[in-house]
Amino acid sequence: MLASLSLATGLVVASVSPPSVSLHTPTSIAVFTAPTALAFDPGLRTMLPPVYFCGESVPIHEEVVARRLVSALVRNTDHNQALLRIRQRASVFFPIIEPILAHHGIPLDFKYLPLVESALQSLAVSPKGAVGYWQFMPATARELGLTIGHGVDERHHLIKSTNAACRYLRYLYNRLGSWTLAAAAYNNGIGALLGNIRRQQQRDYYYLRLNAETGKYLYRILAFKELFSNYRSYQHLIPARMMANLSEPLGSISGAEPDLDEILIPEVVMNEATKAAVSAPIKEELHPTRGRTMDIPLPNAADVFRGGIKARLTEQSGLQRGQVWVFHLTRDGIAGGLEVEEGDVLYAVVEDIDEKTDKLYLRADKLYSASEKHTYNLTLSAVDASTGRLGIKLSDISQIKSGWILTWKAL
């Protein structure tokens, strides 16, 4: 994390890059930094699915980008038991972190950041003095409203430190205009990052020349995201034992209870905080297009069931125009003349929210075939299964969560 920031003046003091988490993780959980030999086949780029971070497309068509992502994935899957333990911890902490991120309008992809920072351990300490789940330096923590001193260090408090991290990420995004750059600045400091941007005249993280730690930082976050939410698309990279591990429900794994080697917040406190975060209003950041006065009709509702497909929501980035949501098909079928299979992936964009008709419009322009490892151009829109019309009623949005199934129609 960073040495200090000044929210009042908008100036941030640049700091040295923190060491990798494996250096400041005090117990047996390792975050994967051991070197792994990897022979990269340039043709592998065409076998990778589309990848997004907070709705921003990752340019995996570039060999260096694909190479770094594959390297991060392989390093993680070389450590079967360590990844299992982190997956177990994530199953406990993500339900607490996610509603706090949503309350602050921070994309849910940032829930993977503390996996890289601390392996989700409150007692993690770096040699530079960064502490806690989100690895705050003392000065930064205090300026973000956390109390440190007199036997109290709120960097160890999951809910308070997560709220502080959200405030800081929002500040970084407002300064940089990109969630990808905000993640890089979280690691390297906004001053150092802005210096690199000015010197190189480049604002794209993937093309900036950065220090080794920051250059790998986002790929480590992406590796966790892809392994936890889209691992079936990487069967050609992931060992069979790890594939079985990732697909196994945690409750059925022997010894699946997380080894929480620190004093955690009492469950009743976490439950109450989660309820409060979920019920709090989310800041409205959409600017819906005005003037849409009617639904665009499809031929009839029956066509939806003959030509439509069903897909289950597995990753929601946020309720903002341009955000990308990930859906997995729930059955085989045909869409736009293309045979599709259960497990294929839709990357859907929040196209619009129409306040006049209280509808959310989702569009997917590509479908990734999990079995063929190939991306097809296919335009699909989410439709109301009861009417066959485009758009989902906003009254249903309150029920959005992983497992939400929508009907999709090729246009």
Structural description of this entry:
By secondary structure, the protein is of the alpha+beta class. Helix content is 35%, strand content 18%. It has a 6-stranded antiparallel barrel. The protein has a two-stranded antiparallel sheet with strand order 1-2. α3 packs across α6 and α3 packs across α11.
What are its keywords?
alpha+beta; 6-stranded antiparallel beta barrel; two-stranded antiparallel ribbon; 12 helices; 15 strands; 35% helix; 18% strand; globular
Structural class: alpha+beta
Q: Beta-strand percentage?
A: 15-25%
Overall mean confidence score, pLDDT: 74
Strand order of the largest sheet: 7-8-11-12-13-15
- Sum up the overall morphology in one term: globular
**Cα radius of gyration in angstroms:** 22 Å
| Measured distance between first and last alpha carbons | 46 Å
Order of helices and strands: EEHEEHHHHEEHHHHHHHEEEEEEEEE
Query: How many beta-strand segments?
Result: 15
Major sheet size, sense and barrel closure = 6 strands, antiparallel, barrel
- Share of helical residues: 25-40%
Low-confidence stretches at least 5 residues in length (pLDDT < 50)? 2-39, 252-307
Number of helices: 12
List the helices and strands and how they pair.
Elements: E1 4-6, E2 11-13, H1 21-24, E3 52-53, E4 56-57, H2 63-77, H3 80-104, H4 113-118, H5 138-143, E5 148-149, E6 152-153, H6 158-176, H7 179-188, H8 190-200, H9 212-229, H10 240-247, H11 267-279, H12 301-307, E7 309-315, E8 324-329, E9 333-335, E10 338-340, E11 345-354, E12 359-369, E13 374-383, E14 392-393, E15 405-410
Antiparallel strand pairs: 1-2, 3-4, 5-6, 7-8, 7-15, 8-11, 9-10, 11-12, 12-13, 12-14, 13-15
Helix pairs in contact: 2-9, 3-6, 3-11, 6-7, 7-8, 7-9
